[in-house]
Amino acid sequence: MAWQWDFGDGNTSALQNPDHFYNLNNTYHVKLTITDTLNQCLAEVVRDVVIDYSPECVADFNFSIDSLSHSRNHYTFENTSVLEFPGEIVWTFGDGETAFSWETSHIYNSPGNYEVCLQVTDRFGYCQETHCKTLTTPDYWNIGGFLFAGDFPINNPNHQGDTAIAYLYKKLSAGLFLYDTLMFHKYGYYYFTSLLGGEYLLKMHLSNESLHSGDYFPGYFPKSLKWGDASILSVHSDIFDCDTRLVSQATLSSGAGFITGRIVFKNDETKKSITPVPVLLYDSRMNAITYVITDSNGFFCFDAIPFGCYYLYAESTGDFSSPSNICLNESTPGYDDIVLEIFDENVTGISDSPITAKQNLFLFPVPTQATLTVCFESTVHTLAKVSVLNYAGQEVCSNERVVAVGLNRFEMSVENLPSGIY
Question: Do 129 and 149 belong together in one domain?
Answer without folding.
Answer: no
